[in-house]
Amino acid sequence: MVTLILIGLLGGLITAVSPCILPVLPVVFLAGGTGRGEDAGRPARSPGSAGGDGEGGAAGGSGGAAADHGSGGSTDGAGGVVATAPPDAPARAPRNRRPYAVVAGLVVSFAFFTLLGVTIISALGLPQDILRYVGLGLLVLIGLGLIFPPVERLLEKPFARLPQRQVNKEGGAFALGLGLGLLYVPCAGPVLAAIIAGARGEISTDIVVLTLSFAVGTAVPLLLFALAGRRVAERVAAFRRRARGLRIAAGCLMIVLAVGLALDVTAAIQRSLPDYTSGVQKKIEDSDAARQQLSGLYDNSNKELSRCEDGADELRSCGQAPALEGIDSWFNTPGDRPVDLKSLRGKVTLIDFWTYSCINCQRAVPHLRDWERAYRDAGLRIIGVHSPEFAFEKKRSNVVAGAEKLGVDWPVALDNDLTTWDNYRNRFWPAKYLIDAEGTVRYFKFGEGEYDKTEKMIRELLRQADPTVTLPEPTDRAMDDLASDRTPETYLSNLRVRGYVGTPLVDDRPAVYRFPKGALPLNRFSLDGTWTAGYEQFTAGKDAKLAFTYRAKNANLVLAGTGQVTVLVNGEVTRTINVTGSPTLYRLTDDEDARTARLELRVDEGLQAYAFTFG
Asked: Taking the model in full, what pTM does it have?
């Protein structure tokens, strides 16, 4: 039990500093320092004081009868002194407990609805995404309350019966935490996956302990962030002088966040950030000790899968592929009919466990699209098993819309009860399982990364299924192969960039670039106009252009945003590409034979360019 608690605590700590919770941090920070407007800058009155603030002090320094009230005694009619009690010491101002209230509300809401949300919603027959909409509505109301005090007083009425005045004053902050808990969508690792899977049936003591320890671990970094907001508000004079303005700004931020979450705008920001906690999360949550503890929360079915390890360097026999069972419905199939794995014997099958709102899953989709396009004719079939983390991800229309937005056009099974997830003893979003032509699991990969290794395994399985098959060039190539006949994949990243020439790159802020004079060497690219060079993409500014001398049959570029790209080859306009939505691979050139050419792109302002691939 102690080990399970430690795993939950560490899992929560890692989750609370991951990119997936960044959208809620500004709200937590500001909420910690935005107390009630009427309390700002006002000292507390002594409990025994009858007059206004400061009256006793004013009288105590003057002579005559008035001075007697401030000197600790009074005279009787005979001139004797009658002892009286000393004046009451000034009471300390009540401490701002908003940081604790916000984080407590978030933890209570997240833990409660993670364990019981699905059960309650199903029992009441409510829409699966009702909790998300309640959270969004509550966030908007809290924002309005910070802007308009009457709304805040209305929100605090449910707490008015509590005996302590300071407690019921923090009711609005607690309500804000409850709303954030409904919108809190952390990056899921094995701990959260075990909680979600274990909460579907009879909830055991282990699941409750794991959930509470995970929630407490999550609360610690968030509380520190909220306390930092309170500290800034208390110590910085500008904050004290502008308390009212700060509350209005915080209210506006909460409303903007609610709109951004409703429109899924925050997902684009999260996708652009590297998953900097994935290594630590995997080391702790997927350690041998964690596997032993978390696997005890499942049954013993399909234990053969445990013979294989994540991301092995060679194909292995991991047992017969479990069936796709308990599926609520399918889409992207003829007539939305189900797919039977037995019907795919002779083919190589990739099972991808994902959810449409998982940022890690979204970043993996472009690689799946590349493999689907490159290897389908050679016998590869991809099946997406959508295993939801949260209730709103069970709604079919939400999943279909999310898949369409991401460009997922292969068959998708809605595993709403996580039955197939359990069959595969899965613990991660995303997770990929490769099944050979005989129906045996030969390889699996948890999380992001190592796409070149996964593609290598796909190619080996395709050759095993048909030794005569002709395979295209790999889609994920090493960056250091500049001497090869074909231009290698090239990332537009200020940390991974290779082959760039021209004006030195400026990290993470707009800068004006100019093409170098003369011809651009082979396998080199350059910029012109305004660009912002970021960690995962280059963002086009005013008059943005990009030139690349390449050798290949075709050139492709992953683009995101809304706008147009004009493509020129050797100085002639060949096509105009309309870009819309999340990162998607776009074909820039397409020739029958490999050739060396100068590619120039004229990119609309705001578009994001991620990586070139060549075929």
From this structure: 0.46
